[in-house]
Please model this.
Amino acid sequence: MATIQGMCKNCGSLIVFDNRDDKCECVFCHLVFPAEEAVKILENPGDYTFPNEKIEETDETRHYYATPVYPDMVEKAVARDKTSSKKDDSDSKLKPNEFEVQAKDVKAPKSLVIGLIIGITAAVAIVVAIALPMYLSRTELKNKITTSIGQVFEGTIKVDTSVSDDGYSKGYSVFGQTCQNIKVATTDDVTQEKAKEVFSKYCDLRNRSGNFTSDADSKVTLELYTPKGIYTVTNASAEFKEDEFFETKATTTEQG
Model:
């Protein structure tokens, strides 16, 4: 027995039937119609309109479709489809597994939640209690130093001590928790003696502003930027690093 495929002219479903039958039957809508017509529709289904009308199933035992391996497979599939289509929409919705842990079932004990809130609040309070006084102390010290910073450079080097529109000093920068670091820029040619003098003056101003002793000078570092290079001055030493650009330019001038 050979089978032929066609298309239902009512619902557009694929039909498989015996080539010896002159009729074919749709297993979905139960329409029985000429087999030749089903073959033509399958060849060019775009030229057809499928009305999808309801066809009452007959009580005839003779069917015009082919199921070579399991004759009752299609009928069982249709029966299952009918049964499932009768279920209410509410039954078709996904329901949570009764053994699955839902988010609403996981609830932390009230005492634990309260404990966490208290712990976080306490931690924030401790951080603020430590950081705020340090910030206020540093800000107060820096304000005192910057107010009198001109004394550090007066008579030694020229430094622009004015403040930009952004609120930053143009020719110097003081930073560190105890204002132990200072960077200075000048257009003057500076000797090592002058660099040490600026360092000494800054240490004196810092000690007066913060009520420090001379022992605190060991924590201070001065970086002095000059046209020829950078001086790094501490209480123990004064080192000069020549600017590579200036060194290259000077060498070129000499060769010329």
